[in-house]
Amino acid sequence: MKFKKIKGTRDILPEETEKFLAAEKILRKTMAKYGYREIRTPIFEESALFIKGTGATTDIVNKEMYSFVDMGGRNLSLRPEGTPSVVRAYLENNLYKKRLFQKFFYYGSMFRQENPQSGRLREFRQFGIESIGSISAQSDVETILLGLEILKNIGLKNVELHLNSTGCEKCIPSYKKALGDFLKPKLELLCSNCQRRFETNILRILDCKREACRKELKNAPKCIDYLCSECKTHFQKVKNLLEKVDVSFTLNPYLVRGLDYYTKTVYEFISPVLGAQDAVGGGGRYDRMIESFGGPPIPAIGFACGMERILLAMEKEGTVKEADKTLDCYIVTMDEQTDEEGFLLLGKLRKAGIRCEKDFMSRSLKAQMKDANRLGTRFVIIIGEEEMEKKELTWKRMSDGLQKRIPFSVENILQEIRS
Ligand code: HAM
């Protein structure tokens, strides 16, 4: 029987892992610069957390959660996103009592049972941030600046910022009503999903990717035309600040995002080189979630980005940097005795911080040289019988093939590597 990975999951092989690691290093450095500290929450939580947080009418909760009942009869789900978990941890650990304003970042696997396609997986890695405690438009803009800087530092060349405001509980009902009045006569032309959404959460219809539905949505009312004065002022401040910090954006009046919790600002980082799944990240304000979890009325904003999508976009742009996988030395030996000498030298060189490797399969000189080449080593050390007798080793520089004998000592090897 041959085992296969589950549909929508991926094996990230060492070469690709190195690309992830390089990006992760950059994101951690940039997060630290902006004062965001890492939080690690469990990979599974009570399903109710996501039903309440992510939202009962979202596709994520309705169709995509990996849920199971554990031995204790608890209904649990693999996390489909990070925001509800961070909010739960913020409240459960009373973090707001120490300092109301707190900034977190997270990185890890999320799970959604979506139809897999390019850039859409069932297990994918996200990094995200949550800035909790401020209602200021400055915190909206800080999250956007941080997202754009991370994407740029990781190496993505082209990122567009799409922006909208989805209002608040005061103004959104009048918008929903206007959208309902507009869509009611067209209801039969919408897909069955959207017909259901018309009853459950009409805003989700704006997310539908089906061509037929998109056609009917042309000239639909725009949320920004229904904002209350508070939301309007906030959105104006966000736009003004973005202009002042030279961040260009596209106003997308139909951007509502696929999650239920957003209030006021919503945004997406779009990569124009990707196809249907072109959002490398997205986020927005969620001023009501903390209160809805039984906490004080504390506002918050955040975003998350999909690491696989970022790397895919970079591949399409041709901007993926090859990870530095160079080996410093490869030790070639001739027989049992020299092979043990080679093994002891391997340990000493590694202790001195040198990246080195040797053969462990008693292969021929030719096969060992081939292996050294395949691993892209900078230098080869050859230990033969004659070298052993003279307490020397053969030193070969792979870039130009230069070969010489040097004394058999770690110091001499280090000197050669540094010269
Ligand atoms: P989201 O838009 O659902 O937002 O996901 C954020 C990003 O994760 C997407 O833009 C995409 O790059 C990536 N992503 C989502 N689903 C998949 C998938 N199936 N396969 C590959 N990549 C995917 C959130 O998750 C919110 N928690 C963001 C947030 C934080 N809002 C406020 N705070």
Condensed summary:
This protein is α+β, with helices and mostly antiparallel strands and about 425 residues long. Helices cover about 40% and strands about 20% of the residues.
Could you explain how this protein is built, in words?
By secondary structure, this protein is α+β, with helices and mostly antiparallel strands. The chain folds into two domains: 14-171 and 227-317, Bira Bifunctional Protein, Domain 2 (BirA Bifunctional Protein, domain 2, 2-Layer Sandwich), CATH 3.30.930; 327-418, 3-Layer(aba) Sandwich (Rossmann fold). It contains 16 helices and 16 strands. It has helices at residues 14-33, 47-53, 59-63, 83-92, 95-98, 137-154, 172-183, 192-200, 211-217, 229-244, 289-292, 307-317, 336-351, 365-374, 385-389, 410-418; strands at 37-38, 44-46, 67-69, 75-78, 102-111, 123-132, 160-165, 250-251, 263-270, 279-285, 300-306, 327-333, 356-358, 377-383, 392-397, 403-407. The protein has an eight-stranded mixed β-sheet with strand order 1-5-6-11-10-9-7-8. It has a five-stranded mixed β-sheet with strand order 13-12-14-15-16, with helices on both faces. A three-stranded antiparallel β-sheet has the order 2-4-3. α1 (14-33) runs antiparallel to α6 (137-154) and α6 crosses α10. The chain is elongated and about 90 Å long. The structure holds histidyl-adenosine monophosphate.
